[in-house]
Each structure stands twice: as C-alpha cells, then as structure tokens.
C-alpha cells in the first residue's frame, strides 16, 4: 500500500510538471497513462469513477 501511494504521488508530480511545462511529449503522455493505471488500483478509484460519472450525467443533461 505504501509503495503504490508513493508511486501515485511521484507520477502525479511528474504529470503536473509536464503539463505546466506546456510541451506534452510521448514520454509525458506515457507518465499520465501510468498515473491513470496506478490510480485505478488504489482505494480512490471508486470515488474518481463516481465523480466522473456524476460530471458526465450533469453535462449530458444540459440543454443549450
């Protein structure tokens, strides 16, 4: 558990640095993908999934 949390934090920090830099390259995208896979294996996955589902439902319900 402690190892997966530290890997998630490391990948999150790298993703933020890469995105703030403004030049998202293939290696940077790979780090973001690895972050997504690591987050999917943590206990935060159900919370993230329900938040994304709620946001998608809210956006799909908007009428212009």
Key structural traits:
3 helices, flat, single chain, DUF2304 domain-containing protein, mainly alpha
Radius of gyration: 15 Å
Overall morphology: flat
Structurally, the number of domains stands at 1
Q: Averaged pLDDT, please?
A: 77
H and E string: HHH
Count of distinct strands: 0
Largest sheet: none
| Cα-to-Cα separation, first versus last residue | 45 Å
Roughly what fraction of the amino acids lie in strands?
under 5%
Range of helix content? over 70%
Based on the structure, what is the oligomeric state of the protein chains?
Answer: single chain
Helical segment count? 3
Structural class: mainly alpha
Low-confidence stretches: none
Write structural notes for this entry.
By secondary structure, the protein is mostly helical. It has one domain (2-60). It is 80% helix and 0% strand. It contains 3 helices and no strands. The protein has helices spanning 2-21, 26-40, 45-60. Helix 1 (2-21) runs antiparallel to helix 2 (26-40). The longest helix is centred in the first third of the chain and has 20 residues, at 2-21. The N and C termini lie far apart (45 Å). This is DUF2304 domain-containing protein. It comes from Streptomyces phyllanthi.
